[in-house]
Specification:
Layout lengths: L1 E6 L2 H9 L8 E4 L3 E4 L1 H4 L9 H7 L4 E3 L3 H18 L3 E5 L2 E5 L4 H4 L2 H16 L3 E6 L2 H11 L4 E3 L5 H5 L12 H9 L5 H7 L1 H8 L1 H11 L15 E7 L9 H21 L2 E12 L4 E12 L2 H22 L1 E13 L14 H15 L1 H13 L10
Parallel strand pairs: 2-4, 7-8
Antiparallel strand pairs: 1-6, 1-7, 2-3, 5-6, 9-12, 10-11, 10-12
Helix pairs in contact: 4-6, 11-12, 13-14, 15-16
């Protein structure tokens, strides 16, 4: 049996844990874009990555907090220590969720249900955070179970009733069914996983294409042979900003602000993982749902915000005619071809200040003093002849 453990509204839960005045109140963590919303805020329709201004229209009484990434990283570290003490087979998916393979631990730790109950208790008692756990025979079904059980729940799918649990669910519960795919299925009257399973592989391929059709056909029948991979290093780290049917601003200045925010988010994650990347990728989706990518391979692998931002700005400039013509609905970036950062060449002696040192200062200023302090730091940097990335809020 496999556990999918997922911390509930992670950033917002950490804030509510650390400030008792926020408990039971709608909390939004973000700077320009909602990064996390408490379930009290979600009840008003707030979700990630909605703009904070729109979120406040839906939930005027929400408390908006600037993210404290150091606090979230520390909480995540403590939770993953509990995971590692539960089983040696842990596959982290992100800072706040993981798969745990508990097969063979019956004699030592009890049944998978007992292990899941203890895991939730330990996270609550030792870290002070709510966590939802889904338990099933496959990774996909465990993740579906945790999604159904949220928030702060536990759901075990018995091996002899897997399809009985899965087939009545909405198709949106399947891994990989987003708004566009769901709309295509709904247009054909397919709203439940069971209906999708009855359609057969050929029918799904005709609707969604070969790759997506075969993928969803397998998941609808709970065919997921993937094992839990331990300490798998990611080959890429990315982020995106999507607005659904509302087109992203095509004004170059506003588009650049979106790009800067994405680069800031991704490069912080790359540095936190002690990785560097050699290739940057710009991903775009347009008003007619077509997609395009642009990429550039750098001379040297890096995790420097300014170097990566400069490369991506060049890619945006080259794609601007297409963006203006088609209307952008999603902008995404990825840093790929990752390797350990101990392979990075040291700055040359004649450089005034290593850009990586600037990145470290920017991260520290953001964490301690917020975005306004970054604006001042950027002004000081420019007056001193040094280009410091002004990060959007």
């Amino acid at each position: 049996m496999i556990l999918h453990a997922d911390l509930d509204a992670f950033y917002a839960s950490v804030e509510q844990r650390d400030d008792a005045r926020l408990r039971g109140r709608p909390v939004i963590v973000g700077a320009g874009v909602v990064l996390s919303a408490s379930y009290e805020a979600r009840a008003f329709g707030v979700y990630t990555p909605m703009g904070v201004s729109k979120a406040l229209l839906l939930c005027p009484d929400a408390v908006v907090l600037h993210p404290r990434f150091t606090a979230y990283s520390e909480a995540s570290k403590r939770v993953f220590e509990i995971f590692d003490n539960t089983t040696p087979l842990v596959e982290g998916l992100s800072i706040d969720e993981a798969f745990l393979d508990v097969h063979g631990l019956e004699q030592l730790s009890g049944t998978s249900t007992e292990i899941a109950i203890k895991l939730r208790h330990d996270v609550r008692e030792q870290v002070g955070l709510p966590i939802t756990v889904g338990v099933a025979r496959t990774k996909h079904l465990a993740k579906v179970a945790s999604g159904v059980a949220k928030p702060d729940g536990l759901l075990v799918v018995p091996p002899d009733d897997e399809l009985g649990f899965l087939h009545p669910l909405a198709v949106e519960h399947l891994w990989g069914v987003g708004p566009v795919t769901a709309r295509k299925l709904h247009q054909r009257g397919i709203t439940r996983v069971g209906q999708l399973a009855e359609l057969g592989e050929d029918g799904l391929v005709a609707i969604l294409g070969r790759a997506a059709g075969r993928h969803l056909h397998a998941l609808a029948h709970n065919q997921d042979p993937r094992p839990v991979h331990v300490r798998r290093r990611r080959h890429s780290i990315g982020s995106q900003h999507a607005t659904g049917l509302c087109r992203l601003p095509s004004d170059p200045a506003e588009l650049d602000a979106t790009l800067v925010g994405l680069v800031d988010r991704v490069t912080r994650r790359v540095r936190a993982a002690r990785r560097v990347g050699r290739t940057v990728v710009l991903r775009m989706r347009f008003g007619d749902y077509t997609r395009a990518t642009r990429s550039q391979t750098l001379v040297m692998a890096t995790n420097e915000t300014q170097t990566i931002l400069r490369a991506l700005r060049g890619l945006v400039v080259s794609a601007m005619p297409l963006i203006q013509r088609e209307g952008l609905t999603m902008l995404g970036i990825t840093v790929s071809n990752l390797e350990n950062d101990d392979a990075v060449q040291l700055p040359l002696p004649f450089e005034r200040r290593p850009p990586r040192a600037v990145d470290r200062v920017v991260d520290q200023v953001r964490e301690r003093f917020g975005v306004k302090a970054l604006t001042r730091a950027s002004q000081l940097g420019r007056s001193d002849g040094l280009e410091v990335p002004l990060l959007s809020d």
